[in-house]
Write a structure and sequence with these properties.
The chain is α/β, with parallel strands linked by helices and 609 residues long. It contains 15 helices and 18 strands.
């Protein structure tokens, strides 16, 4: 396909040639069909000598010359109309492209080209088409001066950086989706590192179900797990507290109603020890959801007193069952982060400061590690943390900027409303719908977008879609992308490692990119994989240590001496079998024996020598 140079309508700016030996008269293709969204280009798959050029490939961008403007398109299909290959001459092919926008030259000489998503002049039949030049490609993804960070390179041209507008990505929420093993966690770690560098005022809370992010952000991160977490039970709302007591099962309405009545009384007893069970009515009245400390012992005392009332004869089974649930939860070692005796005092400032890094002391990231925690605890704690994040941002009047990152988000926000924990869903939905107004942002990471609540997903304005093999998941992403870029998603099932399609408010236009490489030691989960050396024989497996971790019960400590201490190495009848009785231990002033109450509480006599 040769035409005279002066016959063709060239570009207004000089363009570099891909190959110096290429003829100046070479035309790569011409438009043979066009509608409002797509066009077809007629070209040749080989040159006159019969060598296959490979100039047309799926996923590449092309430029159509229209004088002062160049229409930009993305190749989504190529083929031969007769489905046959000839070695005798050139092979004509049809290249199907999707129109994305147009590039215009700057008004002043030497000014950078400007890209516009709209198309003012559509290509005419016979218009010249060729591979897009790098200068125009940079104009397509230019962010027009917005605060940006570089997260990788373009798949189209690795010499060009892939930039995103970080403020728009965070403020309008974002989602990273992709199947297992494509590099989601690595992409999240990279994005967090870049975000912290660009936004030093940002504080990040990661809900980490696999305990993998703390090792990938060692210089920024504080690790919180069930052993180091201090989240008092009195900070839980009634629904969240009931989730813990009923262990994720269906709640009993009668028992929840009793809690709704008695928890305010227990809180009033803590604030006003001499007031009895009288509850003040008015603007400063306490409710079951008010985050005010109270004692579990006071709550149990209220239940006992109600059981002793004559008019509560029919309610005694309900009250007895509720008392058993509370005592069981308070003595469960898995819940020690809630019911520890030192958490009775008003420690809300310290708790919130530690979790949300206020002040951050140079470590603005908190990783809440949930592996091994019971599901009902995870549901309640995530609900409390999401609720606190929104309230902190709201009442700080924009001074506090918080990002809540939900790894495996379909656990907390499933598409089926009958699944999951309703308060967690409501707390995260509130952040998604209203959070950006107050500086509380949401990041969603999932491998199954089809199982995620559509309301949450629709509030995410920027998507990073990595390889997805499931048709249902692809359909969810396809419904979120603009129609003009729909063909880009044809690559979702075949993209390589670290590759993603970014679209939404955080990028100029739909962009296929490859994330930067992270150092091996900073890839999430690397440390755990290196430590997990498989055993060939099983002899080096410490089963006793595994069982002890499985039980998660602290070792028994020496008890108070109420009887003689016997040497277990001796037997009855041996001389000196009985040792002298150990001296009796005096209770420490701060030692709590019943859920935060000292031994002298409600009728118990103080121990004397």
């Amino acid at each position: 396909m040769f035409v005279e140079r002066e016959v063709s309508v060239g570009e207004a700016t000089s363009q570099e040639r891909r190959n110096r030996e290429q003829s100046d008269k070479r035309i790569l293709g011409n438009v043979v069909q066009c509608d409002g969204a797509r066009a077809t280009i007629g070209a040749y798959a080989d040159d006159i000598e019969g060598a296959i050029t490979g100039l047309w490939t799926v996923g590449k961008m092309i430029s159509i010359n229209l004088g002062s403007t160049r229409t930009v398109g993305l190749v989504y299909a190529i083929g031969k109309s007769d489905r046959a290959w000839s070695n005798e001459g050139q092979n004509p092919i049809e290249v199907s492209i999707e129109l994305i926008g147009e590039v215009r030259d700057g008004a002043e000489p030497g000014a950078k080209p400007v890209f516009d998503r709209g198309i003012t002049t559509y290509p005419h039949i016979g218009a010249i088409a060729h591979r897009i030049r790098s200068r125009d490609l940079q104009a397509v993804y230019d962010l027009a001066g917005r605060h940006s960070i570089t997260i990788g390179t373009l798949s189209q041209d690795e010499a060009i950086d892939a930039n995103i507008a970080i403020d728009d990505v965070l403020a309008r929420h974002f989602a990273i989706v992709g199947t297992t093993g494509v590099g989601k966690s690595t992409a999240v770690s990279l994005l967090l590192r870049k975000s912290i560098e660009a936004r030093p005022d940002l504080r990040i809370l990661i809900l980490d179900p696999h305990n993998e992010f703390a090792a990938s952000l060692p210089e920024y991160c504080v690790r919180v797990d069930s052993k180091t977490l201090d989240l008092p039970f009195w900070m839980f709302r009634l629904e969240e507290f009931a989730e813990v007591l009923f262990r994720g099962r269906e709640t009993e309405p009668e028992e929840v109603d009793v809690l709704r009545d008695l928890i305010p009384a227990a809180k009033n007893l803590y604030r006003n020890p001499g007031s009895g069970t009288y509850l003040r009515r008015g603007s400063d009245a306490l409710t079951a959801d008010t985050p005010v400390p109270y004692r579990i012992a006071d709550l149990i005392k209220q239940i006992d007193e109600r059981m002793g009332m004559l008019e509560s004869k029919n309610d005694r089974p309900t009250l007895k069952s509720l008392k058993t649930r509370i005592e069981s939860a308070a003595s469960d070692p898995r819940y020690r982060f809630m019911f520890n005796s030192r958490l009775i005092e008003d420690t809300i400032h310290e708790t919130i400061g530690n979790i949300f890094r206020v002040p951050n002391h140079g470590r603005p990231v908190t990783c809440f590690e949930m592996a091994g925690m019971p599901s009902e605890v995870v549901n309640s704690v995530c609900s409390v943390l999401a609720r606190l994040a929104f309230d902190l941002a709201l009442w700080s009047e924009g001074r506090l900027r918080l990002l809540l990152l939900c790894e495996e988000a379909h656990r907390y926000m499933p598409a089926d409303p009958r699944l999951g924990f309703a308060p967690t869903r409501h707390a995260l939905s509130r952040i998604a719908k209203e959070g950006r107004k107050y500086g509380c942002y949401l990041g969603v990471v999932t491998q199954r977008p089809g199982e995620l609540d559509p309301t949450i997903l629709s509030q995410c304005s920027t998507f990073f879609a990595m390889r997805l093999a499931n048709e249902q998941d692809q359909a969810i992403i396809r419904s979120a992308i603009a129609d003009s870029s729909a063909s880009t998603l044809a690559f979702l099932s075949s993209m390589g490692q670290r590759e993603a399609i970014a679209f939404g408010e955080g990028v100029a236009t739909t962009m296929r990119l490859k994330f930067e490489k992270l150092a091996q030691e900073l890839i999430p989960g690397t440390g755990m994989r290196e430590q997990a050396v498989p055993s060939e024989t099983g002899e080096d497996v410490d089963l006793a240590a595994i069982v002890e971790r499985l039980r998660n019960v602290p070792k028994p400590q020496q008890q108070m001496a109420f009887a003689e201490v016997v040497d277990t190495a001796r037997q009855a009848g041996d001389p000196d079998y009985r040792k002298p009785a150990a001296p009796r231990m005096q209770p420490d002033e701060d030692f709590d024996t019943r859920y935060g109450l000292k031994p002298a509480t409600f009728g118990m006599r103080p121990q004397n020598d």
